[in-house]
Inverse folding.
């Protein structure tokens, strides 16, 4: 297809929606390190994980070998409600930047949860239903994951109990209301409904909560209630597996128009979107069949890949979870107030951590105001108001396109537009009012975070 | 195409996006009555309208004869950013209702303005730009129209001045912020920036404003500023013309799957969405080529078609606009607080009014809580959180589908899903908390509205 024939939006047909998830671990020579028990430092078995997670999801978590995993028919049907998502050629942004680069984005925001999170939420809700469970628990910060899970549980008619970081619960009443509309039970965290919550409230009476604390409460609620399990929206291998639907679709759409991306860019918090977007491209790269530049963009305020350590650490601040080997800032690192709530996580997906460690991808940071500058530039010409998280990728895509302008290169740039910013307008307001801060953690801030990383010695598998 | 082969979402290809708007007036035997001057009662000429509206739009307003009007290339390009919109088969809703009916909806909410309003906003902004104007003014209540116009003006790089009803300005800061992000100048109305605003503030110091007052300010701001014109998001013939893109696409999508709708349903405030959705179907009906049941659904709190009078009336409460012949509750009728802000208009599009008067369509009302009940039922299975306005159509579609369940009829039901409810969560919250009211105006309330309808005698054209 000649360049001028490429449509604004490349849609796959409904029967081209992937019927299999792609498991990038199958093509990794160095597999991601297993989750280990914090006491014994032994890798967790399916049996040990089962009290926390749904059975099938434990299998998926540990499966480093199966390349293609069939998507159950019920999940395929749900995907048809909002997928395939469009691969968009950003003609207007290219024109505005006056760049010879061709910019594409895979837009995952066209559903009520407003983001890609629904891709994994529906899978996790399905496996819970299929196992005969009554319901699931989870935590949510910014609220995208909680919203997605509420929608998914409502569809499969199982209970959904969300622990929402108290400050978000109070400042984002609309997110909370969407979850309620989908029938979820939303509790501000810390709460007096769990031991860990009561303990924290006693120690820090005025606390407005944190993601780590909400995780601890959600895990306790799941493991202490008959018929419940805990589910998580990022970081885990299973989540990246489900999110591969993004990348598989994107790759197929590129093949349809006869284009190969040169650079692939995604924002990185826990890694769910980036891991999903890049997976089949990374597979080709790992198998030596193609080369792509792959760039993770993280907030300068929470730079796990670029300034973290590649070690075993807790996934939560309450230290009730297993240890994961990942790039981490320490489970007690507290990022400065940043409006990309979905990127304020101290760690990074073990899969992405390993790939980064092995040199298969780059990472860079972006400062908050420059992210919102990119967001607004994008919104004004491309019509979509992007989520602050996604706008990290926009920032890098614009920067790469401007480099092409200098060099005259016609590169094909792909970035992941994970979601919309309808519930982030307080952040846009701060930006428009010139009141947005750009705090970057000092080396001392990082040392404080690193101080509590557990000593796992030289545990190797 | 056999029933089971119909996909969840029927998308046209990009080159099937309409290249012409369809002007239903060309097929009407009884044309809509012309706008008249409130003093002389004479029909307005293009020359008389030009100080208020862009030239080309005046031509379109008065053109009762040209059936197909070419869509300029620049507008076609913008349409490609968010169109074609999907025609969705509501499989999950059908299953939930256990109905033999086939339910389809044309979804116009997949753009940042959140509604169909963008279809006309971009056209009006284009004609303003093309005429060499500096900018446009408008009013907005709920904010969908203001947001759409801000996006359109930003794209064509012209000024956008929005008078936003003060109570909305204060209660919907996020809508306001989206407009600002798109570079619009948003003023709470009434303001001290216009004579009419100052006059109203002097008379009613504590007023929180009204749509009628905001219209008056916007018109004054346009006519008193060099290089500006006023634009409007509904009611006018030109707006219905631009919105025909919805119906033309829907009809083409139905032809693609070999289905003919039996019943077509749309919510009706000023008529922009309903008029656009039904236009090509209505054309066939007017030409005697096909028959469709067409149903307008209005809020029980603002029942212009079902309880209004078909007479000449002002389009605004400040009485600075021409008179339009329409079903009206009187320009000073104040609907009770209803969360479907986009449907709180005292009048109705002259085109739709004439068609209703001539028996080509039905109208019914829906009470607010039953509308939100339908909204929530829809959201939980179809995944989209609908706008309160659109949910009036959902209510009627569900009711029709349930009738089919009783009779066993396999009717094809089409409704217009005009937009999303991300900025209407205060309303959802009220509904979820059981605090939503269902006030229906009494006959006395209506009499008060009718009291100030101007006496135009038996003016006929």
């Amino acid at each position: 297809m000649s360049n001028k024939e490429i449509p604004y939006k490349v849609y796959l047909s409904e029967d081209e929606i992937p019927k299999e998830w792609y498991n990038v671990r199958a093509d990794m020579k160095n597999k991601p390190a297993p989750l280990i028990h914090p006491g014994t430092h032994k890798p967790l078995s399916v049996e040990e994980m089962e009290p926390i997670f749904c059975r099938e999801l434990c299998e998926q978590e540990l499966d480093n070998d199966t390349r293609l995993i069939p998507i159950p028919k019920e999940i395929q049907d749900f995907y048809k409600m909002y997928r395939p998502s469009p691969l968009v050629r950003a003609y207007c942004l290219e024109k505005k930047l006056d760049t010879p680069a061709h910019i594409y984005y895979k837009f995952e925001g066209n559903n009520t949860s407003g983001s890609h999170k629904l891709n994994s939420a529906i899978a996790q809700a399905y496996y819970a239903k299929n196992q005969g469970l009554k319901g699931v628990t989870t935590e949510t910060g910014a609220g995208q994951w909680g919203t997605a899970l509420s929608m998914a549980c409502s569809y499969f008619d199982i209970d959904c109990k969300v622990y929402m970081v108290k400050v978000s619960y109070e400042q984002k009443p609309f997110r909370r209301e969407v979850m309620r509309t989908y029938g979820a039970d939303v509790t501000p965290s810390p709460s007096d409904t769990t031991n860990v919550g009561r303990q924290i409230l006693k120690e820090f009476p005025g606390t407005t909560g944190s993601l780590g604390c909400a995780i601890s409460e959600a895990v306790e609620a799941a493991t202490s209630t008959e018929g419940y399990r805990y589910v998580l929206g990022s970081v885990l291998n299973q989540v990246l597996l489900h999110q591969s639907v993004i990348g598989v679709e994107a790759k197929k759409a590129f093949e349809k128009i006869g284009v190969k991306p040169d650079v692939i860019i995604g924002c990185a918090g826990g890694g769910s979107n980036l891991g999903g977007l890049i997976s089949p491209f990374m597979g080709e790269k790992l198998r030596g069949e193609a080369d792509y530049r792959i760039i993770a963009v993280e907030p300068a305020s929470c730079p796990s890949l670029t300034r973290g350590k590649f070690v075993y650490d807790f996934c939560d601040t309450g230290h009730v979870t297993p240890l994961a080997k990942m790039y981490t800032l320490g489970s007690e690192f507290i990022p400065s107030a940043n409006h990309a709530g979905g990127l304020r996580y101290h760690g990074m997906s073990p899969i992405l951590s390993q790939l980064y460690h092995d040199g298969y991808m780059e990472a860079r940071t972006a400062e908050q105001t420059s992210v919102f500058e990119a967001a607004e530039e994008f919104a004004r010409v491309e019509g979509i108001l992007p989520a602050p998280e996604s706008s990290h990728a926009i920032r890098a895509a614009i920067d790469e396109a401007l480099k092409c302008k200098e060099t005259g290169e016609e590169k094909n740039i792909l970035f992941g537009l994970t979601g919309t910013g309808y519930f982030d307008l307080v952040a846009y307001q701060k930006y428009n009012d010139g009141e947005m801060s750009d705090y970057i953690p000092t080396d001392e801030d990082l040392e404080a975070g690193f101080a509590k990383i557990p000593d796992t010695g030289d545990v190797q598998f």
Remarks:
- The two ends of chain B are 48 Å apart (CA to CA).
